[in-house]
């Protein structure tokens, strides 16, 4: 049965899952959810499967999975459970633990700071002092990624994993105009964060990989 991904094109959390599915070659159907309306006004179909009322939700293998990094963890271990080579996960225990360290870091850093630096400008009306706080943290996050990627090709070793997928979630949106005011514009990466820029290009060069903008294009938001 084809997997179903409830998602939204402005959600980096949704993009993480879409990117992992694309990299793993998993066939899925996108159902884009209107997150601009109150949760109780979203479709009954979506509300029935969304335990927290949020995107993404992935229906796969008879499971109803919520929260992006939980979904990534399942997708990485699913390939191993199917009897094939482990993909998007560490090859051994220590590497797998490093992968999940990055997942935890990303959830409290990139998916908090970049997400709010973007949202507060494009969709909200955040106080300037609050935006400045998120901007500082966002730049520190990119500094941390740069430091790691100056040492290793991928965040958790010598091959791409769900750690890389997770950290891409909101980085694809730094090509948008808001990022210049936040001091994280992708156009500046080659000079300020060159290892991060090279890693970003490597991720999007992987077979099946698409940017967030490409992954969600051409579909109607109707759930």
From TrEMBL:
Regions annotated as coiled coil: none
Domain GST C-terminal: residue ranges: 92-223
InterPro entries given in the database record: Glutathione-S-Trfase_C-like, Glutathione-S-Trfase_C_sf, Glutathione_S-Trfase, Glutathione_S-Trfase_N, Thioredoxin-like_sf
Residues covered by the GST N-terminal domain: 1-83
Classification via PANTHER family: GLUTATHIONE S-TRANSFERASE-RELATED, HYPOTHETICAL GLUTATHIONE S-TRANSFERASE LIKE PROTEIN
Name of the protein this chain belongs to: Glutathione S-transferase family protein
Originating species: Lysobacter enzymogenes
């Amino acid at each position: 049965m084809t997997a179903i991904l409830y998602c939204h094109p402005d959600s980096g959390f949704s993009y993480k899952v879409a990117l992992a599915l694309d990299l793993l070659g998993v066939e899925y159907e996108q159902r884009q959810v209107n997150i601009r309306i109150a949760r109780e006004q979203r479709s009954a179909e979506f509300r029935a499967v969304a335990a927290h009322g949020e995107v993404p939700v992935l229906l796969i293998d008879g499971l109803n999975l919520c929260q992006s990094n939980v979904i990534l963890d399942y997708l990485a271990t699913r390939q191993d459970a199917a009897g094939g080579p482990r993909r998007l996960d560490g090859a051994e225990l220590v590497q797998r633990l490093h992968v999940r360290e990055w997942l935890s870091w990303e959830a409290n850093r990139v998916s908090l700071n970049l997400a709010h630096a973007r949202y507060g400008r494009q969709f909200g009306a955040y106080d300037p002092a609050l935006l400045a706080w998120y901007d500082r943290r966002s730049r520190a996050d990119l500094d941390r990624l740069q430091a790691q990627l100056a040492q290793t090709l991928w965040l958790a070793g010598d091959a791409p994993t769900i750690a890389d997928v997770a950290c891409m979630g909101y980085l694809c949106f730094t090509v948008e105009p808001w990022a210049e005011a936040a001091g994280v514009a992708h156009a500046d990466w080659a000079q300020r964060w060159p290892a991060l820029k090279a890693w970003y290009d490597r991720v999007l060069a992987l077979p099946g990989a698409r940017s967030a903008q490409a992954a969600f294009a051409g579909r109607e938001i109707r759930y």
